């Protein structure tokens, strides 16, 4: 299950729905390829996110990230595997082409969170391609920075997955909010807020990051599911809790039984599902009235 | 309620118990002064932590922080107010005398987490005293770095408070783990892990930070209390969850009814309580067999 950020039905999407749906399907295909060869949930989630990090035109992660107020790029990412709660996160990444791959290197290490230049260095050591700052900065991101007085969408990307071994995983990657002060970090790399996976559920969030941190949204969904609350209700309660601290956004979640939910309080949240034996299903707005059990 | 880290009964404490207890009492006195003039829980918790940040001989926060493997100091801190879940956190602080004061400035801003040099800059703008790196590096910390092959205690400091207005707050500050790679961040500034406060409970954690992040320990204690679980049981369950991901440590917590718990799985956790009309109560090891309801 993937998302590409909860936000407004803006000019970046309007009239380009087909392109967005195509890109979502291609991201799902990356995860599908991993899973169909018997791969693990964590690898599948990372593969989908890595694709979206490369896709500069639409997604706010990796190349094409939102820019800080000074025009710089600072990226965050996190991964978590539910079976053993192994987690890796990075913040303040400036040179690694795939922040989610750096988060993966952190997950494989003794650490859980690495920040700043040392995170890029760890990425380089782990073989993650390093790029000049200019690689990440797109014309579209510069344009958005100029318009930052408008409430723009937060096109963070994320993926959650349940694999054939019954293991859950979550991955999230973001460039933050257009015009944010350098040094600002949102919910994406905060394990328990923007990203969480345990034996009950895997969750990836998007939206007003500060509100998701103050709610501990990801952890809350899984904790409720762990105590027997139905996934959809747990996710709704978490979003209500985010709204209580004046935040909007959305999340995707999958539980250990394979139930899926993808609620959002914004106009749109581009999203998609792939399940064995079915074509990928994708949607953008609430008006698509999309139920996971009704293929588009 | 304050703590000064969960760890071993090491030479840093053994034979110096009186000094430690004195320092804990003085930290409590700072919070008491705030509360006795009708001040708020957040100010009281911050005052106790600020005292411990200055106290270089014992506490691993501010001056006297543990050193990174390259001999540098990188500090983290977080504050959270339960009534509105306002939160502020910083990581990778290198120059601000009081990292908790920078976290306070973040709490008062639109952000929740600021990292690196920009966090120090925000601190400077908010009037937090800036110091040369050498101010933070003590002989004792250099000695500990040399001995880092030994399992050393993690003397993170923290405070939780319930004020006369019925508002809960939590504060935590740390220099991390002696010999940690630069850029590594533990649980202290992760809202929901090392630091959390809501309307049910306020929690500050200490120990193997990565395990507390992978458990979402702080949020878990309060979430359980919010669903009616007794505070002591909630804290025990959170520490069991930390142990399940191979972590040890401790936490302090207070709930909205004023109940207190201070469990730890290590040899010692210097800690203390001040309550109106009583003398401050302090303890160091489990052997003190200290129940909060039995003044020392």
SS summary, helix count of chain A: 9
Question: Biggest sheet of chain A: strands side by side, in what order?
Answer: 4-3-2-6-5-1-12-13
Uncertain parts of chain A: 291-296
| Mean pLDDT rating of chain A | 93
Which pair of chains forms the biggest interface, and how many residues does each contribute?
Answer: A-B, 41 and 41 residues
The largest β sheet of chain A comes out as: 8 strands, mixed
Helix content of chain A: 25-40%
Structural class of chain A: alpha+beta
**Distance N terminus to C terminus of chain A?**
15 Å
- Quantity of strands of chain A, as a count: 13
Categorize the overall geometry of chain A.
Answer: globular
Radius of gyration computed on alpha carbons of chain A:
17 Å
What is the N-to-C succession of helices and strands of chain A? EHHEEHEHHHEEEEEHHHEEEE
Question: What do these coordinates show?
Answer:
- The structure is a homodimer of 296-residue chains.
- The first copy, chain A, has 296 residues and is an alpha+beta fold.
- The first copy, chain A, is 32% helix and 22% strand.
- Chain A has nine helices and 13 strands.
- In chain A, the strands form two sheets. Chain A has an eight-stranded mixed β-sheet with strand order 4-3-2-6-5-1-12-13.
- In chain A, α1 (17-36) packs antiparallel against α2 (41-54), α7 crosses α9 and α8 runs antiparallel to α9.
- Chain A is globular, with a radius of gyration of 17 Å.
- Chain A starts with a strand and ends in an 11-residue tail after the last strand.
- The interface between A and B is large, with 41 and 41 residues.
